[in-house]
From TrEMBL:
Belongs to the HesB/IscA family. One of its GO terms (molecular function) is 2 iron, 2 sulfur cluster binding. GO terms for biological process: iron-sulfur cluster assembly. It comes from Sphingobium baderi LL03. Coiled coil: none annotated. The lineage of its organism: Bacteria, Pseudomonadati, Pseudomonadota, Alphaproteobacteria, Sphingomonadales. NCBIfam families: iron-sulfur cluster assembly accessory protein. Residues 16-115 form the Core domain. GO terms for cellular component: cytoplasm. This is Core domain-containing protein. InterPro entries: ATAP (IPR016092), ATAP_core_dom (IPR000361), Fe-S_cluster_asmbl/transfer (IPR050322), FeS_cluster_insertion_CS (IPR017870), HesB-like_dom_sf (IPR035903).
């Protein structure tokens, strides 16, 4: 008897809104030489412990998750995926500010200024 193993595509850890995808395309259009994509990570900083950081990346890391967007590759730091599963990343602009905004169901709290979060 042969046992078949079926694999299925898993959903991305982070859902990107159309505005976030457009912003990634804009960033990649002006990326420094050697950049292969944009990477989201959650370094330890701020008064609540973890912060969101979006930076250019020049090489793929072994455990990073890669999401292909129409404007370029978007990576999620392998060590950060656990903190971000199920999150939505949006790009919001108004008259006074512009930036990525995260709806993270894993965040248990955040600091008053919104720069960091706890899980």
């Amino acid at each position: 008897m042969t046992i078949e193993t079926k694999s299925r595509a898993r959903p991305a850890a982070v859902i990107l809104t159309p505005n976030a995808e457009r912003r990634i395309a804009d960033l990649m259009a002006q990326a420094p030489e050697g950049a292969i994509g944009v990477k989201l990570s959650t370094p330890r900083r701020g008064c609540s412990g973890l912060a969101y950081s979006v930076d250019y990346v020049t090489e793929e890391a072994r455990f990073d998750e890669k999401i292909e967007t129409p404007g370029g590759a978007f990576y999620i730091d392998g060590a950060s995926v656990l903190y971000l599963v199920g999150s939505t990343m949006d790009w919001v602009e108004d008259d006074f500010t512009a930036g990525f905004v995260f709806n993270n169901p894993n965040a248990k709290g955040s600091c008053g200024c919104g720069e960091s979060f706890t899980v």
